[in-house]
Amino acid sequence: MSITSEPIDFTDLDALVTTVAGPVLTPTDDGYTAELTGFNLVTIPAAQVVVGATGAEDVATAVRYARANGLRVGARATGHGAPIEGRGTVVITTSRMTDIVVDPVARTARVGAGVRWRDLAAATAPHGLTGLAGSSSSVGVVGYHLGGGLSPLGRRFGWAADHVRSIELVTADGIIRTVDPSAGSDLYWAILGGRDGFGIVTAIEFDLFELPTVYGGGIFFAGPAAADVLHAWREWAPTLPEEAGTSVAILRLPPDPGLPAPLQGRLAVHVRYTHTGDPVAAAALLAPMRSAGPILLENIDVLPTAALDAVHMDPPGPMPSAERGSILREFPAAAVDALLEVAGPHVASPLAIVEVRLMGGALTRPQRVPNAVAGRHGAFNVIAIGVPAGPLGDQVGSHLTAVTRAVSPWSAGALLNFCGLGAAEREQLWTPEQRVRLETIRRRHDPTGVLRVDDPSFVG
């Protein structure tokens, strides 16, 4: 563990303004709301002070200011996490911290806390390399890794968190530290998978993989065929080799002219598929699913790995949303029927996406270096995402609960980046022994709760 930074003590806001390189904003300042607003527009955020950090020193200074004034600290990078708000809170935004260093020989990347996957892909693609990106390139690289990092490529390569080499973070004492597995650091173990309340991550270094292209995309089936498609998928998916990844989603699509015409305003069932091996073999494996129902659209081909967004086709821009997730031990016919009962084509639902994703493969293997990533035992992951706007917007919560209850007989917990739960509920993701260890580490490094907010977003 390395430690840097000179001590600075002050209680005057003007001292903070003159010390940090980035903007310091209060609710009366122009740009305050824009600085706080992230990808999830479900609430209008608020904070007592917002610090737009340009580097680790700005973050450390803001934390010391908060400590000197008895304030709590939260962080926001791309804003995909839960909002941080409230009087008595200093929110540090790290979106300006966008440095990327790629070492094509060592096959590593070091990125700042504000880097999104699309930025990293642009830097790694010329070398034929990729990180273990998620389904959307708008997501922040750091927060994604800290929550585990479940990639469409995960069955082949494992969790993104398992490939992190070092982490630079600012702890609650306002000191910049670098932790890595060589010293057996408790912070390294906890923050990779525990994510919240251990420090504000300013940069990480992690492995890259030689994978210039991937065979992938999706098949959109007509909504009325949902039962046939889901039952066919649940039998087919577990037969796939580790080189293949897949998910199936019930989509309620808006009448957006930016969507392909066959999908605009439609309910569709989307089978997503990736394969990291031979395209001919990949196509042959997918063939049985093509007869599962009437096809509205298919877009599967050899893709640059930097274009992995084309597989899930997640919304590219900010939107209000709420989500809940569960991991399942199995996905039998009864689970399909239960899910269709609450989210199938006959239901008037505000849920834009109800997805079941195949796990297993390398995701179940022991870590090379232990960390706190939860959910390794899961066979499938279910996530439901609703839009709390429009005619049914006020029913999102009840429909999310209905999905969770429907699959509860087969549930075995949840994944941190997918669960959408409050702080207290998230604690149930780990075993009792892991919870004790996580809380012990939190208290050791933050005994006064500087980094503990009521509903923390991911750090970084």
From TrEMBL:
It comes from the Bacteria. SUPFAM superfamilies: FAD-binding/transporter-associated domain-like. Pfam families: FAD_binding_4 (PF01565). InterPro entries: FAD-bd_PCMH (IPR016166), FAD-bd_PCMH-like_sf (IPR036318), FAD-bd_PCMH_sub1 (IPR016167), FAD-bd_PCMH_sub2 (IPR016169), FAD-linked_Oxidoreductase (IPR050416), Oxid_FAD_bind_N (IPR006094). GO terms for molecular function: FAD binding; oxidoreductase activity. Residues 43-211 form the FAD-binding PCMH-type domain. Its cofactor is FAD. Keywords: FAD, Flavoprotein, Oxidoreductase. The keyword Transmembrane does not apply. Belongs to the oxygen-dependent FAD-linked oxidoreductase family. PANTHER family: BINDING OXIDOREDUCTASE, PUTATIVE (AFU_ORTHOLOGUE AFUA_1G17690)-RELATED, FAD-BINDING PCMH-TYPE DOMAIN-CONTAINING PROTEIN. This is FAD-linked oxidase.
